[in-house]
# Entry
Amino acid sequence: MKITQIETIPVQVPINQERAVRGGRGAHTVSPFVLLRVHTDTELIGLGEVSCTPIWSGEDQMTAIHCIHTYLGPQLIGNDPTEVERLTARMNRVLAGNVFTKAGIEMALWDLVGKVAGLPLYRIFGGPVRDEVPTKFSVSGLEPAQAARIAAWAVEQGFRTMKVKVGIEPDQDVARVRAVRAAVGPDVRLGVDANGGWSPRVAIQTIRRLGEFGIYFAEQPVAPLDVTWMADVRRQVPVPLMADESLYTLQDAMALIRVGAADILSIYIGKGGGIGAGRKVAALAEAAGLTCTVGSNLELGVASAAMIHLAMASPGIGAEEFPCDILGPFFYESDVLAEPLPIKAGSARPLERPGLGVELDDALVARYRVD
Ligand SMILES: [Mg+2]
# Structure
């Protein structure tokens, strides 16, 4: 089997603006994503999604499409798509960075591996270590009453774990978490995500103040500039720390582990350039006695499926304790899939079909296409 063409489809699905996530790094109000169809000389097509946002990785639809057609595609066309490791290395040799773009292709290659084998991806990755993937909700960094209203809505939907965006202004951050705790009651597990918005000193002070509201993790308290900042914070607060913006590559994970900067690593399919990189980070965390969760850039259905397969088969991802952010249906007006993923409030499952298990709905793709 050989790759013959990589089709790029820029899409933009509207986000519910009331729930759109605002945090210490700005707001995620549009998703300039690219859907991919990796065509082969057989009837099989691999699906991918570049879930890129400029404020996150510096990629958008224009850069993704340009990089695929100019640099990555020529390395792949004519090759066997099931040689995922070899083709991933080739992509990394010809183009620095652009990890979410590479990840979109890599997941399409895995989709083809699964389709050739006739197995859902999580079964190719070793089979299920859980029956479903626990998920949590993400409460936007709005003023307290609004954040509390969204949190109460999420509880009504069925969520029992959520994180609140902080890192904007310490007093407001504390007021927001207080209001959310009051709205959701004592039994909902609450974490906070500062998106690197605090200085080390403010992080230590604010996390200590938040102890009163029973938060059970604090995500990326400080900027990802120097890995020792987070290690310093971690030594001085009683709450487990999660690394998100500090963790892209396998080497980032190793550096975090070496200096003792984190208790939990947040894996995205995009950050390491694919599902394979995510599986390696999860294994490294396992070896270091840490655990992982799966974080989100508000993926649509194709990349959400990739996240679910990864979490289903990875013992290094402790989704029961630190539920994953697989949330697309709660933020977008629609998805682009022919059959929606079984994503509920609090849990997600894969579709039991080969590869990623998803198919695009051509009418929906046409509706959200933006070129
Ligand atoms: Mg985060």
Summary: The mean pLDDT is 96. The chain has two domains: 3-118+361-368, 123-348. The pocket of magnesium ion is lined by residues 193, 195, 219-220, 244, 295 (CB under 6 Å).
